[in-house]
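Worked example

This section walks through a single chain of length 160. The input is the sequence exactly as stored; nothing has been trimmed or padded.
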Amino acid sequence: MNETIKYSIAMRPNPVKPEEPKKAYACMQHQRTIPLEELADHIVEHGSPFSRGAIYGIIVDLTTCAAEALAEGNNVDLGKLGCLRTTISSQGAKTIDEFSAANIKSLNVNFDTSEYLTGRLAEASFEVTTSRKAQAAALRAEKEGKTVADWTPEVEEDEP
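Given that input, the structure is written out below as tokens.
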């Protein structure tokens, strides 16, 4: 398993103090999203006694059951993976008596990683790569037969 996390670097402002100079921050560069079917195949490759179809079905059933448990106000402990829990976003009311369910704007699902998963991720190495924007500019330049990529944003001139 390739346990190297790729990231790019971008200059970003501090949202709390926008007047401060921008600083360089890491930006996650995901390689791809692995579909459930492929994850089931991967589990089989690790020596699971269950078939790809059985694993896929179990995960689909897990999703349904977890959604039901969360909707009933429960947290869902997924063992070494982590824990699903719900949070509520609401609009404030002046008093407790004025607050009602109408003040609730959304129910959100949060995922808290387990110590095991956090530990596994802590073992990963890091590799800097180009940003998606730079990769797209390089591809455009290559298709156009250019040797230098221009990835500055195009500025439209004001019409007279």
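What to look for: Residues 66 and 156 are 50 Å apart (CA to CA).
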